[in-house]
From TrEMBL:
Protein name: Universal stress protein
Species of origin: Halobellus salinus
Gene from which this protein is expressed: usp12
SUPFAM superfamilies in UniProt: Adenine nucleotide alpha hydrolases-like
Domain UspA: 111-235
InterPro entries: Universal_stress_UspA, UspA
Length: 238
């Protein structure tokens, strides 16, 4: 069964030359992309003044970024002048019904996608997004479950991963492109970060609706901060 295309929000700071990596853009080709150019406005400066002075250049920058997507990608652009990046991204994600928010980093080539799996974190939505994106990619996917040592029967993780792999296979992803890894760990987050070093992109499910604000604000999660990889955060919202 082919998964429907997710709506993916890609924030870009248009006050400078920030641009998502082309290989990451190619991975997003099956998605409906909302490319939001946000322009930071200092507290002491009027929004109207910044917009009047910089809107034309900001629009040109976001359109330049949109042109870098594969030509058949469904891309919509907008520019927002804001004092609060976190609030803006969260609001735009809600307005457009975005299932995913991208945290960009440089990537060499997208060949291996890491999906940390926890049973209580938005798994159906995560697998739906992964299946939809991998239909247009040759990348492989690793489903990774790190259980705190002594807190879980090892068979629980194995069963969880097996079910997730079956879901991807049912969605049309070849078995040969799906790996599963279950580990017992004293430091699960460290193991996820270590696993990320052998992958090109991470797909994470947010554990609560406020996580988007956390990862785009001043206190990013350790996985996003330490992995050094682009991260697709699958939102836990309808």
């Amino acid at each position: 069964m082919r998964e429907s295309a997710p709506t993916v929000l890609v924030p870009v700071d248009v006050s400078g030359d920030e641009r998502p990596d082309p290989d990451l853009l190619a991975l997003l080709r099956p998605a409906k992309v909302v490319l939001v150019g946000w322009y930071p406005v200092p507290d002491q400066t009027a929004l109207e003044q910044m917009q009047a002075e910089h809107e034309e250049a900001a629009v040109a920058r976001i359109e330049d970024v949109a042109a870098e997507f594969p030509e058949d990608t469904d891309v919509e652009t907008l520019v927002v002048f804001t004092r609060d990046r976190t609030e803006t991204v969260d609001r735009v994600a809600d307005d457009y019904g975005a299932a995913v928010v991208v945290i960009p980093e440089e990537v060499r080539v997208v060949e291996r996608v890491l999906v940390p799996v926890r049973g209580d974190v938005n798994l159906d939505r995560v697998l739906s997004v992964v299946a939809a994106l991998l239909h247009e990619s040759e990348a492989s996917v690793t489903l990774f479950h790190a259980a705190p040592a002594g807190d879980e029967d090892p068979s629980v993780g194995t069963t969880l991963l097996s079910g997730a792999a079956d879901r991807l296979a049912d969605a049309g992803i070849d078995d040969n492109r799906i790996d599963t890894v279950a580990v017992e760990s004293d430091t699960p987050i460290d193991d996820i970060v270590d696993a990320a070093t052998n992958h090109d992109v991470l797909v994470l499910g947010e554990s609560e609706p406020s996580l988007v604000a956390q990862i785009l604000g001043d206190a990013p999660s350790r996985i996003i901060r330490e992995s050094g990889r682009p991260v697709l955060v699958v939102r836990d919202v309808e």
